[in-house]
Amino acid sequence: MSIKLRLLLLYLKYFTKDNLSIPPNKIREDNAKRQPTFHKILEFSPEELHEVRNEWIVMRDEQSIPVRTYRPSTQKNLPLIIYFHGGGFVLRNLDSHDRVCRRLSKMNNAVVVSVGYRLAPEYKFPTPHQDCYDATIWAISNTSNLGIDKNKVTVMGDSAGANLATVVSLIARDNNGPKISNQVLIYPCCDSSKTYDTEIEYSEGYFLTKKRMDWFTDHYVRKPEDVFEPFVSPVLMDDLSNLPRTFIMTAEYDPLKGEGLAYSNKLTAANNDVKHLEYSGVIHGFFSMPKISKECMEANQDIKSFLNYA
Questions:
Q1: Is the pLDDT of residue 28 over 80?
Q2: Structural domains counted in the chain
Q3: Which of 42, 121, 167, 270 could crosslink 241 through cysteines, CB 3.0-4.6 Å?
Q4: Residue 260 sits in a domain of what CATH number?
Q5: Catalytic choice (98, 158, 191, 254)
Q6: Helices 160-174 and 127-141 sit at what angle, rounded to 10 degrees?
Q7: Active-site entry in 159, 233, 288, 293
Q8: Segments forming the whole domain that contains residue 55
């Protein structure tokens, strides 16, 4: 592990509190206030793009959610990446992942649609999955408006967002939905039904803690039995065949690593085209830390090579 990452973990240990008794909406407010500081420490300056556009789209229950569209140039018929942010289904938003999406758009010469799905506990399972699928339908249906090639569609997300991405692929497969070419799952949360060895080995001291993982799950599910629902824990899905080309990333010091490896193995066993890479010496969240983790940009280059859009 790099010195910079070690210093970050020491800072988090001694100068921040993981007070999970605070209501989620208050944690979101506090995170929003601290976001500029963490961006300054962890992130590069935001990529300049041809256009970044905010709008609201209507969901199946007639409520609206925000989406942010990133366009790298005036070129038409660009590939589409639909991005679902992480945050345990409870935290984060379009702003927390703005620089991630700008970078993906620039590096892959692709239109990126970032989805501001509704969060738990105000909106529990399955609302976030429904929002993300509806947003995917909206994006692919707006081919001419977005200037995209609907034959080059990737769903992508980190952590909880990776769960949402793979569930969108499953829903599309089972409901004659839109054709999704690729799914990129960045340290995915894909099995809340049991405790993996990595959750014990890296339960504390590596940014994402087992305690916080349980807190996320408790806020997300309607009842404890929901953890056995395949859309909460895709590893439990009986049929994982005929899914898009898949790139799964895991991090060495991440409690979610065991879940990601288990899902990769099950997808491979179901005869899918699967690439799995584990990034050494990094923690959960490294994909948003290019200033202190060179592996962040290595992972971005790996995505670029996998998609082969640019």
A1: yes
A2: 1
A3: 270
A4: 3.40.50.1820
A5: 254
A6: 70
A7: 159
A8: 3-307
